[in-house]
Amino acid sequence: MRPLQDVPSTSGSTLSHRFPVGILGVGSYVPDNVVTNEELTRHLDTSDEWIVARTGIRERRFLPEGTGTTDMCVAAAERALRESGTDASDLDCVIVATFTFDQLLPSTALTVAERIGARRAVALDLNQAACSGGLYGMWTALHLFQGGQFQRVLVVGAEALSRITDPTDRTTRVFFGDAAGAAVLGPVEESSGVLSWSLGGTLSHGVEVPAGGTREPFGPEVVGTGRQYLKMNGSEVWDQVMTRIPPSVEETLKLAGLRADEVDHYVFHQANGNLVTGLMDALGQPREKAVTTIEEYGNTGAATIFTVLDRLRESGRPRAGEHVLIAVIGAGFLWGSLCLRQQASAA
Description:
The protein has helices at 37-41, 48-55, 69-84, 108-116, 133-144, 170-173, 234-256, 273-282, 294-297, 304-314, and strands at residues 9-13, 21-29, 34-36, 59-61, 93-97, 122-126, 153-160, 178-187, 193-201, 207-208, 231-232, 265-268, 323-330, 334-341. By secondary structure, it is α+β, with helices and mostly antiparallel strands. It folds into two domains: 7-14 and 193-341, Thiolase/Chalcone synthase (Peroxisomal Thiolase, Chain A, domain 1, 3-Layer(aba) Sandwich), CATH 3.40.47; 21-187, 3-Layer(aba) Sandwich (Peroxisomal Thiolase, Chain A, domain 1). A five-stranded mixed beta sheet has the order 1-9-14-13-12, with helices on both faces. Strands 2-8-7-5-6 form a five-stranded mixed beta sheet, sandwiched between helices. Strands 3-4 form a two-stranded antiparallel ribbon. It is globular.
């Protein structure tokens, strides 16, 4: 693992930004098909007790046949639009983060924009940010606003991870599920919305899908090798999370002028329940400040932070003036943090 000082990173605050930007509404979608741990134990060498103890996951959702990632994106997007009071025709940009797109071409973002009626929106795809895609999408949207021309941007994170995990591999199959989440971003009052951020990355093959690209195209010779499925080195993931996320959070809070105990809600990528509690302990914060969805949905990649934000919304949080810290890490490895202060209303 590369030392922290040798890792490419960027960070900043919005104090110099002309236009404060916040989240105006969120929405999420999960398929109806619930897959419990007990169901997985019927064909995997594992147990419900092992899965819960190692991951905190009790069930996950899998897409039914005949549906794809775009269907989930559309459902989550429409919910976020309703929550924010935004008409799709008023969107200036649609950003979709996923590496489990329906097909290589055409653009997933353009397909989503067309289906929801956002016909004048610019369409942007973030295809390989994996579990960090949702936050990277919001970071991208934040900077798009600074030109002064955009008023509403939709960011969607979605994955159909049941389609790229090996049904016979307990080291990946038990962790992942399918979901989509979305947020509508727009201008907010001064001193609200996104306050600061920190992003970083270091190249690793600890999480990868070896086959299916130009180096090893998918074909008959790949079938049977399992190289078309996601591979994950669990111990490396754990080390990367615990090494990279706390400094990213600390840098983001420093730039926002906040202490860890002044954050009301921590929204972490839902990779593993034990990782979430480990991060809260590392930050010296009460575990109850971190709402989770991992128990019900598993790891849903780019969608996870939106499922947590939606869960917060259901409970009437965050309230005006509360601080939210969002932190993610995904294959690459790519990681990042955003700190927000909840606005009273849209600007």
